[in-house]
Amino acid sequence: MVKVLVLLLLYTSAARAAFRFANYYGDHMVLQRAPAQANIWGYVDECAAVNITFNSATISATVTPDGGTECRWIATLPATDAVTPFTITATSLQGTITLADVLFGDVWVCSGQSNMQFTVPQAFNASEEEALADKYPNIRLFTAALMASDTPVEELLAVEQPWSVASAKTVGGGNWTYFSASCWFYGRNIYDVVQYPIGLVDTDWGGTPVEAWSSPDALAKCGKYTSSRKADGKAPSPDQPSVLWNAMIYPLLNMTIKGAVWYQGEANAGDPSTYNCTFPAMIDDWRGKWKNASQHTSSLFPFGFVQLAAYGSDNSSSFSPGFPVIRWAQTADYGFVPNPRLRAVFMAVAMDLGDPSSPFGSIHPRDKQDVGLRLALAGRAIAYGDSEVYFTGPLATTATMSTDMQEVVVEYTSLAGSEVELRYSYGFELGCSDATWLDATATAADSNKVMVGVPACAAGAMPTALRYCWRSDPCSFKLCPVYSGDLPSPPFQMNLT
Ligand SMILES: *[C@@H]1O[C@H](CO)[C@@H](O)[C@H](O)[C@H]1NC(C)=O
Ligand SMILES: *[C@@H]1O[C@H](CO)[C@@H](O)[C@H](O)[C@H]1NC(C)=O
Ligand SMILES: *[C@@H]1O[C@H](CO)[C@@H](O)[C@H](O)[C@H]1NC(C)=O
Ligand SMILES: *[C@@H]1O[C@H](CO)[C@@H](O)[C@H](O)[C@H]1NC(C)=O
Ligand SMILES: *[C@@H]1O[C@H](CO)[C@@H](O)[C@H](O)[C@H]1NC(C)=O
Ligand SMILES: *[C@@H]1O[C@H](CO)[C@@H](O)[C@H](O)[C@H]1NC(C)=O
Ligand SMILES: *[C@@H]1O[C@H](CO)[C@@H](O)[C@H](O)[C@H]1NC(C)=O
């Protein structure tokens, strides 16, 4: 059934002719609401003039040649925050085409690898969550098909799930198909608060590295892959640089969006050393390119992400050691004070949501509800400017050796009204100048500080650093040592001051 649908929706260039909307516009969709202006675009033969009627206004589209006899048309609609469904009509000499039941709301793009692709049917409490989706007809869903390309493509090469009204059926498409659980729970939580339509565009592919989702410009910023892959007649594989940017992000750039959420990093954990460049470079580049193409998307659109969840059930430092390194690179991107590298970025910590017995492997924890909830709390604060919402666990800023050398004092930034809670004494390690790490015991918390005992380094070595939860699976089952409220403090590794 799913395969048949994909084939039906697969547009080849031969089938492109005639007057139509680009393939990610459709009935039941959500277009970005005011104050932004939404774009719609499509194709028409022979550059015939195209008029759009919307909300009793008529707008003439800009029509430009697109090679051969085909032309592209694009129009920008007047901003609206009306919550009633619209019919949008486009007319040319070739006839009239319509988009029916279009809502105006916030459009969020959800991207990344398998933990974003992971669907509601795979999550905990799947049947209850699917049934609940029937109560959210003002959330609309769209899923891009898995496609890779050596060059940027204008519209999606294929659609997995056309724009659909949220329902038990449309969130319940099956394993790894639709709909993304992290995206759904994020959007549902946002909807519950804003109470106006939400459009969720899911475009992700399991097992893929950040480089695949990055344009050549973004990779060049990190000195990576300055020449593109040589075309060799073979279809690109999805782990190659820029191929998913080309096929699954670039085509969407002309759609006005509110922001993006991202869950990725596992595929970079084998070689994590450049993630602290590639990830922020990708965020910057997506923002700049979306603004340049669509005009009406903010050049600083909010970008949320899920920090890597627990993987494995092994509390040894040699199991998947890249995971904490990726988490640390992600934490810095989130705006680890005092040097936030990017603005309007928000993060959900998930290292305490491990699921060692997941039937999909421990790298795919089934608790996407907490992921979506935490991401939405942060999104409400950062993307929607709600200054009341409690959205982050404590963020460590400094680790200072006491003058008597008996304890390290970790200082945290935490939100007003929330104290650092020390629930367990494990999880901290002292780094010595001989490159060893020794277990260190947290002894007490006081307001925004945690005191950690200092074990003795080997003879001749000095304490130099402190790290926290520096494991692939440091504290599953919500058993992390440091929280505030229900939100865990992310891991860190810092030199002592
Ligand atoms: C588009 O609108 C203009 C101005 O109202 C009108 O002159 C023209 O005939 C319309 N074209 C089409 C194809 O509907
Ligand atoms: C999804 O995966 C689960 C766990 O492996 C399996 O029990 C279930 O049958 C799968 N569902 C479908 C529709 O394949
Ligand atoms: C966006 O639309 C404009 C106008 O049709 C076109 O020139 C541009 O190439 C499009 N950009 C992308 C990324 O498709
Ligand atoms: C990025 O990580 C690498 C390896 O862990 C490190 O050498 C480098 O200093 C980091 N760069 C930044 C900007 O933090
Ligand atoms: C956006 O366009 C400007 C002007 O052409 C260009 O300088 C900038 O590099 C573009 N941004 C990105 C991210 O490509
Ligand atoms: C993980 O291992 C360390 C070192 O053996 C130990 O101190 C700590 O208690 C363990 N943590 C958990 C959650 O089991
Ligand atoms: C699943 O449902 C049970 C019973 O309502 C609830 O206690 C539990 O928190 C739910 N799990 C998740 C991950 O939401």
Automatic annotation (TrEMBL):
Residue intervals of the Sialate O-acetylesterase domain: 106-291
InterPro entries, per database record: SASA, SGNH_hydro_sf, SIAE
Any Gene Ontology biological process: carbohydrate metabolic process
Superkingdom as given in the UniProt entry: Eukaryota
Gene3D superfamilies: SGNH hydrolase
Range of residues in the leader sequence: 1-17
Keywords recorded for this protein, A-Z: Hydrolase, Signal
GO terms for MF: sialate O-acetylesterase activity
The keyword Signal appears for this protein: yes
Pfam families: SASA (PF03629)
PANTHER family, per database record: SIALATE O-ACETYLESTERASE (PTHR22901:SF0)
Protein name: Sialate O-acetylesterase
Source organism of the structure: Geodia barretti
